Amino acid sequence: MKIGTNEELIKLKVMSELIPAILANSKQEFEEKLRVAEKFSSTVQIDILDGSLLPISNWHDAEAVSALAKSNFISKPPWPLLLTILK
Question: What pTM was computed for the model?
């Protein structure tokens, strides 16, 4: 793909976005990582390990995440949430 104009470069820049993934062991750690991620991304991937697929788990309180999404905790609500279930 050959890009020649500034307009084409701007379009290419808009099309790509780095989406940070958050994997946390506590609500406090989750909130800290979310604050950092919101500074450079409008989308955040929240990774949850509940012990069903792997023999490990992490903090995964869906009600707490939902409450944060509805509050003014972050400056760019709402954020898209994607749940992937592997069985």
Answer: 0.64
